[in-house]
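Hey, sorry for the delay on this. The queue was backed up all week. Below are the sequences that define the complex (chains, strands and the ligand SMILES where applicable).
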Amino acid sequence: MFRAASRLRRARPLQRSRGAIIPMPTIVRSVSTTRPLWKDDGETKPGQFARTDPSINMDYPAGWDLPSSNPVRRYRRTLKSFSLEGKVAVVTGGARGLGYVMTQALVESGADAAIVDLDGEEAVKSAKNLLEHFKGENPDAECLPTITAHTSDVSSPTSVRSTISEILTQHNSHIDILVTSAGFTETFKAEDYPHDRMQKLWGVNVDGTYFCAVEVAKHMIERKRPGSMVFIGSMSGSIVNIPQPQAPYNAAKAAVRHLASSLAVEWAPHGIRVNCISPGYMLTALTRKILDDNPDLNAKWTSLIPQGRIGNPEDLMGAVVFLASGASNYVTGADLRVDGGYTVT
Ligand SMILES: NC(=O)c1ccc[n+]([C@@H]2O[C@H](COP(=O)([O-])OP(=O)(O)OC[C@H]3O[C@@H](n4cnc5c(N)ncnc54)[C@H](O)[C@@H]3O)[C@@H](O)[C@H]2O)c1
């Protein structure tokens, strides 16, 4: 576990701030693109887009190459109900990609954060980066956020249980918000999908969401604390992406969305709200690299998006803060699609 900072004193109103560009952590994956990931020849090969296909190797791009995030400056007038001051947020998959940027949004809105990730080292770096960024942006802050990092495999109930317990120990025995961004996608034709890969995909995307939600809910129910959970689904839970075949991923994300609705009803009497965000195509470090290398795929995806562009991770910042905060007090069981209009066409 890494403890990035401990709470110091209460914050006073921030005097000034500059524009925000968070350097994302540099993540080095196995290197070299030995064959194109996508060739617009009408033929899709098994595992063509798979992140876990061992024959596909590529650089995870450096931090400066990423889209910036520009959180709302806190000196500007905004609804008090959007503030997350005094809240503790757990973000699974928060070490990188969408989870990292959403953690940033929650911290910028006043929350302390616990980053939970399979890649513990990356989680530690991300926690440090977020804290350093916060300090740089808020030199007059009297109170620094506490941002902790935790190694966990969300597909394992024992790992999740001990991680939540570790987080409670380090965050004064309370958790108010859960965001489940740990997940992955792979592409295989249905008839070629290896069974063990399919189980892993469901294990992380569906079981992982469920295990984390249940552990956090137990805590909230026991302590009689209300809370908010935001599951990260995908527009793939409602539509079928083309051209890449990914039936199990699509079904898994549909399950995540319906899990949110079902748990919302079950836990409403306890004051726990559960909602889902379904992003469309988002430009994370990895998808940007894939698209840069495959302009045909980029053109194909973009042509299907009414807003005419792939989303940036920062497009999720407002959505996650809204659903995590009191601003959405009467919203539960909802699916908020953040997809540039993809799913309405
Ligand atoms: N990027 C997109 O275009 C997009 C679109 C729609 C939905 N999503 C969903 O958003 C979520 C985040 O995607 P991303 O693009 O940021 O991916 P990413 O690969 O950049 O980040 C995912 C993070 O989850 C972690 N993780 C993976 N397996 C884990 C496990 N078993 N336990 C704990 N942590 C684990 C990874 O280490 C990583 O840090 C996923 O659920 C994905 O399906 C992504």
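The two ends are 45 Å apart (CA to CA).

I'll add it to the shared folder too.

S.
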